[in-house]
Design brief:
The structure holds two protein chains of two kinds.
Chain A (H helix, E strand, L loop, with lengths): L2 H15 L16 H6 L4 H20 L4 H17 L11 H28 L12 H18 L3 H12 L4 H8 L3 H19 L5
Helix pairs in contact in A: 3-4, 3-5, 4-5, 5-6, 6-9, 7-9, 8-9
Chain B lengths: L9 H11 L3 H4 L8 H15 L31 H10 L1 H14 L8 E6 L12 E6 L4 E7 L9 E6 L6 E7 L5 E4 L10 E6 L12 E6 L1 E2 L1
The chains are: A mainly alpha, B alpha+beta.
Chain lengths: 207, 224
Amino acid sequence: MSASTARETHVPVVMALLAPPDIRPDDFTLDVTPLESSFAAGDNRVLKEAYDEYSSLVFSLCRRAVDNDAAADITQEVFIAAWRNRQRYDPTKGGLAPWLAGITRNKIIDHFRAVGREDRRVDKVKNTPAPAESSERQLEEVSLRMLLVDAIDQLPERSRAVVSMAFFDDLTHVEIAARTGIPLGTVKSDIRRSLERLRHGLGYLDA
Amino acid sequence: MDWGISMPDRELQEWTALSRSISEQDRVRHTPPPGLFDLITSEIADLEETSPDVVINTAPAPEPEPVIDLTHERTRRAPAAERQRRRQMFLVSIAAACVLVVGFTLFGGGDATETFVAEATNNSLPEAFDGVATATLTGGDGWTLSLDFSDVLPDDEPVELWAIKPDLSDMVSLGIVEPGTSEFVWPTGFPPTEYSLVDLSIEPNDGNPAHSGRSILRGELRSV
């Protein structure tokens, strides 16, 4: 490696150390939202807040597997089950969105099992084919992708841009820093903290 | 992939792969029908009014139930349109009130405070399982069955809850027992005095909706 190459390689590090205050890493000190913190012990206002925040996700996930009426029924069941078992939600284990998505997947599977039984009873058909996205594995994949869409959307603006460049444009940290003018260390911090937030937004340990 | 100064990060690569599998359909969000939240709060209020507390069975364990091979018994699903009908009924509130009164009479809703309790055990069942579940069925405008477990359920295969007639002439599924769910709406039209066996079975994901015959807990509902 030549001396000039070595100097070029170290330039971004120096820039990171000298990063001005207005481009510090985004503040992720509060991965657990106030809604998530208050859900387990909350009152009906919290239920409304949770419904406003997540009913579209739940209903849309249902719509990937069932028709509009069944999706409404399942969404209703999901929020009733979630509310009646709210004391079991622990925000330190993951986000409310993946917890609700887990309940939604189970309710959709319940729905198809029930439909299968009815078809079998009425039509004497043993193996009723389920719609395209009704298998557990497919449902899990769909819900993960939908959760990721929402989790990325909820990242702070600069982090969302940085993560999008890393995820979708296949750019290295150095290339992102060069393209955006953000110090390399800040890029790395944004990505690391974004991944922490995405983990919270997609996973629930008991789901 | 070259990640520049960072070493390739396996987790980041997994996130990248997941991100790139996102389709336009995954970004579509539908709005639930108007009024759905009111239905949810209404049903929650009903459930909390009719089943305020889980009753813990402290009675001595009954004699072991006779082992019944359910593998070849026919199954019956919970009424498919039940929830949708309930939703429609809510929207026509006055008519709904009439239907509920009639339904209460037809189905013999009985005493609003009536409670049945079953201690479901593994006694004499061929499928090995350590644990006991207490099922408490509380009646009102609707019946709610609460399950209280002494031990964790198997987490590698789904467990399904059934109500079965002792003479095996019929059975109905109450749903999958999943983490975070301990209460089940008892379907109308299935009197607990007739569908008195509570059964939990392991149900493999094999596409066959019939009872697998792999019961892990079973008990009989008794009026308390």
